[in-house]
Amino acid sequence: MTFVKGKLPTDLKLFSGLGAVAFGVKDGGFLYFLLPFYNLVLGVDAWLVSLALATALVIDAFADPLIGHLSDRTYSRWGRRLPWLYIAPIPLAAMWVMLWNPPFGGTPAFWEIVALAVGVRLMLSACEVPSVSLVPEITDDYVERTTLFRFRFLFGWMGGLGMMLLTFAVFLPTEAARMQPEGYAVYGIVGAVVIAASVIGSAAGIHRYVAHRPDQPPPPFSFSAAFGEIVDAFRERAFVIFAIGGLATYVSHGVTLSITIYVTQYVWQFSELAFVIYPLVLGASVVLMFLLAGPLHKRFGKPATAAAGALAALGIMGVPYTLFLIGLWPETGTSASTVGFMIFMVLANTAGVISSISATSMVAEIVEAFEERTGKRAEATFYSGNWLVQKCATGGGIMLSGLIVSMIGLEPGTPQSLVPDAVADRLALLYMAVTGVLAVFAAFWLARFPISQADHEARVAARRVRESATSQTAGSAADEADDTGLAEKTPAGGLIGRPLSK
């Protein structure tokens, strides 16, 4: 069953997208600021921060299937997802504040970072898995699903970039401020308010469309069933192919974002003004993504678009780094260098985000393939699996970035002007080597995703035929029951074989 037939109302698209702001704020924080905050400001070794975040990811990974399973089995008059979206944002906001205001004295220990990261990830899953699981429930249209994901990516990126702009312009406006904890504390408080308001506001906006009690009560909850569904999901060939290609895509994207402060500060020698302009430049790439993703999916399909986007991002971004390494790029820190890099970054990021949105949107079509094979719909199971892939990617991206920073010999707290050229060269070379391998690997697998638009539309048509036949059978049975009841009536209007009510 889908909630909306045909073209989706504009307000539904907008409010559905609004919920992704929380994910954007979290992703921006984890990818842009978390490693520099704990490494450069609080003095934790980069590799130890990366290991703590990876450990948190492993711990949290066991919770995602449970959240997806519970979301699929929530039974209320507001449906399966809305209760989660009204409740979970509050503890998420509290955990976000503590992440940037560590409630421990001195330099945070390994397990203290793990505890904070697990709390944020767990609560974000409780918001994001139900929210994104609504997409295949709202509509089964191939193109309209892309539209919903376009809005989600647009709002998610705008949430992350908006906080990034505020951070560089207000909370951390100078290199000296980026080395002090006070600005990060304010960043955490403002981010918490934005996170809670976006998720609750999204739930309220889509309430009238999706607040329907499920047709049938769900089966009882069990741990074995929760993890069994994830195992069953990985038996779906399309999901395995997506997971392999999607993981590489997200890891590459994670490395690019989590190492941003390092490469912009130490390789490209950004000025304070450039740091403020940078989020606006990335915002332009997201607008381009919003305009291009739909037409590209219609023309080439999601798998081909995802693969081509990954390769295009690599090829475009490789130009300035290659020219820098061979000494043909303008002197870094100059206007020519900064403007040139930002132009290439807009184009490369557009291609990269198109690849990511294509991969994420492909998951929605797996839902119908799984239903055809098993007779069950498990939207949240697949999106908790996708969420697990993205979390692995985030953790993997941050870990790779931490290893790169550790390998180049950059001491914590080193001012931009004192970083040797050899360190900047090693940073650029390792970054391009890692992202290059990941992009080629991702493109190889995403191009092999086996569900086309025609396949999806055939499955939806077959499901509608089955639903129509079931409805007609139920209607015929009801008519027969009514006819039998009429035949049993006596001339006096009594009912034979039924007790009289008082």
Keywords summarizing the entry:
77% helix; single chain; 18 helices; Growth Hormone, Chain: A; 502 residues; 0% strand; mainly alpha; globular
SSE inventory with pairings:
Layout: H1 10-18, H2 21-41, H3 46-61, H4 63-72, H5 82-87, H6 89-100, H7 110-138, H8 142-171, H9 181-210, H10 223-233, H11 237-258, H12 260-267, H13 272-300, H14 302-325, H15 335-374, H16 379-407, H17 421-446, H18 453-487
Helix pairs in contact: 1-8, 1-9, 2-8, 2-9, 2-11, 2-16, 3-7, 3-16, 4-7, 4-10, 4-16, 6-7, 6-9, 7-9, 7-16, 8-9, 8-13, 8-15, 11-15, 11-16, 11-17, 12-17, 13-14, 13-15, 14-15, 14-17, 15-16, 15-18, 16-17
Task: Report on the architecture of this protein.
With 502 residues, the chain is mainly α. The protein has one domain: MFS general substrate transporter like domains (Growth Hormone, Chain: A, Up-down Bundle), CATH 1.20.1250. It has 18 helices and no strands. The protein has helices at 10-18, 21-41, 46-61, 63-72, 82-87, 89-100, 110-138, 142-171, 181-210, 223-233, 237-258, 260-267, 272-300, 302-325, 335-374, 379-407, 421-446, 453-487. Helix 11 runs antiparallel to helix 15 and helix 13 packs antiparallel against helix 14 (302-325). The relative contact order is 0.14.
